[in-house]
Amino acid sequence: MTAQKMPQRSADGTVGKALEILDQVAEFGRPVRFGELLAASEHPKATLYRLVQTLTNQGMLSFDVEKQTYAPGLRLVRLAHAAWRQSSLAPVARPFIDKLSSAVGETIHLAQLDRGQVLYVDKRNATQPIEMFSQAGKIGPGYCTGVGKAMIAHLGDEAREDAIHRQAFFAHTPHTLATEDAFRAELDEIRTEGVAYDREEHEPGIICISAPILSETGRVIGALSITSSMQRQSLEGLTAFRSILLQTANDIAKAAENWQFPS
Amino acid sequence: MTAQKMPQRSADGTVGKALEILDQVAEFGRPVRFGELLAASEHPKATLYRLVQTLTNQGMLSFDVEKQTYAPGLRLVRLAHAAWRQSSLAPVARPFIDKLSSAVGETIHLAQLDRGQVLYVDKRNATQPIEMFSQAGKIGPGYCTGVGKAMIAHLGDEAREDAIHRQAFFAHTPHTLATEDAFRAELDEIRTEGVAYDREEHEPGIICISAPILSETGRVIGALSITSSMQRQSLEGLTAFRSILLQTANDIAKAAENWQFPS
DNA sequence: ATCTTGGTTTCATTTAGTGGAACCAGTTTC
DNA sequence: GAAACTGGTTCCACTAAATGAAACCAAGAT
């Protein structure tokens, strides 16, 4: 089995534990029996049971009476709606992404950093229609995606170290930078370069160019990327997008500064 | 053992309280100051403070250091992704909705019931492109929407009573059924009718026809609706969709029965 | 009919949550 | 320039809530 330990979240209090359970259920990716959960959990039966009970009648977990399984609850969808509108860059960035999308005709990703991991908050694909939550909310590794590297490279020293230590450094492809040292070197490169490239590091044949979105004070607030495949493009081809990508990232940053939420 | 637990008011344990806070923040619809939250809360300063702290470093709330405001956190988006894929009807229903959408050329909604409220989990609009989370995750009232009425009408007695008591019965329009009695009568009607109509009860000029999605055992698992406006359609016009709507609802129910999650 | 397996409940013990009050900046007011 | 606010953070005795070992229950399996 693949016993890969995730970076631990300082489980403060009961609330922390409850949320940890929630994460576990979510990670299964399918409805789970109580027993399975118990096996994967530190907690004794009774404790886990009560925790799950609480989450369930709070609507954070949904319980399928017929199949006796638990899954992340719909209340989350409701809350995420609010989160997405308020905390994510997506609403602000939308017009710019639309423009960029039609200008370059390639897939666009908008992502933010969540504890060292890449969280995609929006996506535009020239050809296919958008796929709702199946795209937004998706997560990916920080160390081998263009957006991930672009963001981590521009973090402050402290935050960057933290992010680096959260990486799993699994070699998805022969091109993956799978060691901390190689990764650090790449980050330096990216900082001087201004943009990050994904040279088939995550998926074979998939390449991208990515730029960070930085606030006026230099804080990393997200990243933007143009993705393509080796069939359609070369790395040099992507370089041609450098200018428009940086411009768009800048536009989004500006727009984010004086973003007022609709009453 | 009597199943009588009247005093519930979303108050089980610390976890319940924390989630309540989360809801409150989400309800603001914009970043909030600690003070504002305090004013809207029952809890004393210190308690609220700690709760908010916990939620924040759990990633359930995000804190804008510059503006000193809280908003629902990105961790929710990640969790919701899982919830949407697993607990919602959307992934199963997608192909059917697509088909229905292109067949009727009107707006389609897919919704589920969450504590008496309507939670939209997917939407198809013939003309406009999809709008990610800005649509999925949206909530609406149960008593004055087609999907809401269709679902509540087909609940079991106990659950239906519960749902009815959760309704606010605010008269959004002159046509809103704003009393419990009128609502009950309408529900009876809907049960014999098989479909529910929204006759400008929520928004002026907006009408819809809706069918519940029922499991083989008769449990309500969601609802489907075709929405239009008085400009484009009449109620009679919508009636023409009755058959295809019921058919689609049925297809979705069938598909949901033997839905296996992708490993 | 008895043994497992998987889920639920009890209850004395322990731990974590609570909240009144004090404390600290920064701002405003006098 | 001191004094009174305002908004946020920390203390700590008190209390309510979480804990978990063990008992219990309901099916299926043997």
Automatic annotation (TrEMBL), chains A, B:
Q: Name a biological process GO annotation.
A: negative regulation of DNA-templated transcription
Q: Which Pfam families match?
A: HTH_IclR, IclR_C
Keyword annotations: DNA-binding, Transcription, Transcription regulation
List membrane-spanning regions. none
GO terms of molecular function: DNA binding; DNA-binding transcription factor activity
Domain HTH iclR-type: from-to ranges: 12-74
Domain named IclR-ED: which ranges?
75-258
Cited InterPro entries: GAF-like_dom_sf, HTH_MetabolicPath_Reg, Tscrpt_reg_IclR_C, Tscrpt_reg_IclR_N, WH-like_DNA-bd_sf, WH_DNA-bd_sf
**Superkingdom in the source lineage:** Bacteria
In terms of Gene3D superfamilies, this protein maps to: 3.30.450.40, Winged helix-like DNA-binding domain superfamily/Winged helix DNA-binding domain
The protein's name: Pectin degradation repressor protein KdgR
- Source organism per entry reads Tritonibacter multivorans
Q: Give me the gene this protein comes from.
A: kdgR_2
